Structure formats: C-alpha cells, structure tokens
Amino acid sequence: MKLLNGIICGDCLEVMRQIPKESVHLAITSPPYNVGINYDKHNDKLAYKEYLAWMEKIWRETKRVLVPGGRFALNIAPTSIKNFKPVHHDLSNQLRKIGMIFRTEILWYKQTMRRRTAWGSWKSPSNPHIVPSWEYVLVFAKDDWKLKGNPKDADITSDEFMRFSDGFWYIPPETNRRGHPAPFPENLIYRLIKFYTYKGNVVLDMFGGTGTVAVVAYKTGRQFIHIDISEEYCNIAKKRLEEASMQQAFKLEVPTKLYKIESQVRKEPTLIQEGTIQYKTYKSIKKKKQIDKPI
C-alpha cells in the first residue's frame, strides 16, 4: 500500500497503524462530531463513551506517527444546544492525558449567524440560547515545542506570519461541498500548513473527506497522507488532485477581503453585514505597506 502522497480508502485506525512511527510533521483533521451527520460511510450516532474511546485510540496513533516537535491541529466545536456536550474539552483532555503539549487554540470565526433559527426564549431571560458562530482549531505538539527543519524551507512570508499568528481567523465556511457535509475551506488549511510546516514536510489527515488537506499540501510543496473510509469521498479527492497537478502555474486563491474583515470584526463584530464594510484588497494593503496593528 502506498502511503505517502496517496489517497487511501480504508479504516483510519487500520491504515494509521501502517504508517511508520515519527514520520509525520503535521496532522490536521476535523473528526466526526457524533451528532448524526449523514456521512457516506460512518455511524455518527455512537454512544458518547464509545465515541470518546474510539477517538482516544486515534489520538494515540497520531502521537506515535508524529515526529518530535510535530503538531496536531484539531478542528472541533461544542455540539448542539438541547443536548450540549463539551466535546472540544473532552477531546483536548484526552490529548493532554496521553502526553501531548497543548500549544494554543485558534478561533475560526465563520459568521453563520444570519442562518440561525434557534433563539430559545426570544427577547426573554427565561431560556435564551447562545449559538457559537465559530469553531476551534486546537493545536498540540509532540514532546517538544520546536520542529526541526531547514530554515531555507520555511516559505511563509512576513505578512502571512504576522496575520496568521493572530489567533482570530475570519474564514467563511466552504460553499462548494462536493458531496461532503462539512468540508474544510482551503484557506484554513493553507494557513495551518504554511504556519506549522516546512516545504517537503508530511501532512496527515486521518479523516480526509474529499481531500482538502491533501490538495493544499500538494499545492504548497508538502507531502501528504490522506485517509478516508468512503470510496466516494476518496474518488473526489483523487479528481481534485488530478486537477491540481494539471495547473502548471498554481497560485492559491486567498479571499482578498478577509484580512480587512478580520481586523474590523475584532473591533465590532456587528459590522459583518453585507454593504457595511469598505474593503481593501490584499495588493493595495501590501503596496501601501499598511498592516493592521494588533488590537
């Protein structure tokens, strides 16, 4: 079985056990949240204790395959309102229990509130609901805070480093789902890969879905391991990689409006409404050497 730079269709635990130890520099994933999402081939309604036990097995394999100093970026959010479970806390506690270093948490602000329907007790303190318009990206490291590598293979720009090191990331959710219920937006993965890896490093997604991590790893000159149990999702991932490989001059499309939005929403979140913000493009910001100051 070809693991490196391959789209592997199979059970994540079975495949991960075939990955050599200390061979992965960054793992990025968003596991099933166990809330009944209609995945192609996964039971997303396990008993909660069974779900957590399954997750812990995967985290132990993740730690085994990471190099010393390797990172794990876990995208997770608390589940539902009526049957609230702090799954982000439970999973982070599992990772700390097995010895992973909790480095930081990134707030991925998605601004999805305009579609909300669950208010609880409307305009009353009786039983109002707070619905998160964000998700977390929890970042862990194995054994060491530093990842060894050739400084010449660090390809993040000064401007990217300044922006990405601010843990508030405004990135709209992916709209082109390609048959998957919850795909990553490429910009989220681009930031994680550029910030936490060197060129040539190996990036793993054990719940690879339709291949966003693999595609962005390929586009940015990293190697990848993609695992998913769904043949349908794996076939889509293969097609996306084929399309990416046919692009002789690749330039990742980073939405130019996001940088300005991020700085403004930190000042006043209610500004994120259509027609209320005067946007500047990334090129104009760079040309005038205007960089948002930390707030």
Question: Any key phrases for this structure?
Answer:
8 strands, single chain, 9 helices, alpha/beta, Rossmann fold, 8-stranded mixed sheet, 295 residues
- Helix content range: 25-40%
Q: What gross morphology would you assign? A: globular
- Give Rg in angstroms: 19 Å
Question: Architecture, according to CATH?
Answer: 3-Layer(aba) Sandwich
Mean pLDDT: 80
Task: Please tell me the total number of domains.
Answer: 1
In the predicted model, the low-confidence regions spanning at least 5 consecutive residues are 269-295
Widest sheet: strand order? 1-8-7-2-3-5-4-6
The CATH topology: Rossmann fold
Gap between N and C termini, in Å?
49 Å
CATH class: Alpha Beta
β content, as a range?
15-25%
Order of helices and strands: EHEHEHEEHEHEHEHHH
Biggest sheet record: 8 strands, mixed
Number of strands: 8
Number of separate helices = 9
- The CATH superfamily bears the name Vaccinia Virus protein VP39
Helix-and-strand structural type: alpha/beta
Structure write-up:
This protein is an alpha/beta fold and 295 residues long. The chain has a single domain (6-255), classed as Rossmann fold. It is 31% helix and 18% strand. The protein contains nine helices and eight strands. It has helices spanning 12-16, 48-65, 87-97, 158-164, 186-196, 212-219, 231-245, 258-267, 282-287; strands at residues 6-9, 24-29, 66-76, 100-109, 134-142, 168-170, 202-205, 223-228. It has an eight-stranded mixed beta sheet with strand order 1-8-7-2-3-5-4-6. β7 (202-205), α6 (212-219) and β8 (223-228) form a beta-alpha-beta unit. α2 (48-65) crosses α3. The longest helix has 18 residues, at 48-65. It is globular. The protein starts with 5 loop residues before the first strand and ends in an 8-residue tail after the last helix. Residues 269-295 have low confidence and may be disordered.
